[in-house]
Specification:
Layout (H helix, E strand, L loop, with lengths): L1 H24 L1
Organism: Klebsiella pneumoniae
Protein name: ABC transporter permease
């Protein structure tokens, strides 16, 4: 399913951004 793959990629990119944000805060 192409839609599922796109959602997974977008979700991972957002998760990585949030992870870097938390790393900067901590």
């Amino acid at each position: 399913n192409i839609t599922g793959i796109i959602l997974t990629v977008v979700g991972l990119s957002i998760f990585n951004k949030l992870k870097y944000r938390f790393a900067e805060i901590l």
